[in-house]
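ugh ok fine here u go
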Amino acid sequence: MTRVDHLRFRPWLLALIGVLMATIVAQVLGLGRDVTWLPPLANDLPGPLVSDAAPAAPPLQALANTWEHPLFSPGRQPDVRPIGDTTPASLQGMVLTGSLVTDTLRIALLRDASGKGVSVAQGEALANGWTLERLDPTEALFVLDGQQQRLRLRPAPGRP
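structure:
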């Protein structure tokens, strides 16, 4: 074989080059840039399918299954509340350990009976329902159903 045999073009290679060149020429000339839209459909729809009005809320009794068989309770049983027990949970065991009091921010830092730290902002409620009504640098006032309880910041040992 001579050197010229290796440089000879194959017919399939010539066809591929021709297709690529035709594609490039078609792109340069703008072939396929025109968009043809279909004519609009006739408006035979019976009106809007979606209403702007919010659906009416179901009656409260229709949602009774929600609290009678709670999804995340063991055995899907409702929470048991002792009969005649209307006294709210107290803040017994809660200790005021600190307070953050600025012009715009008032947060009480507490520790529960198990030693877990809890923080609550003024106007917000604890998990047991008590709401932080007022916070001073050394005292927090909590309210629940007309009852009030105060927690005082204990001074550090050796300090007044």
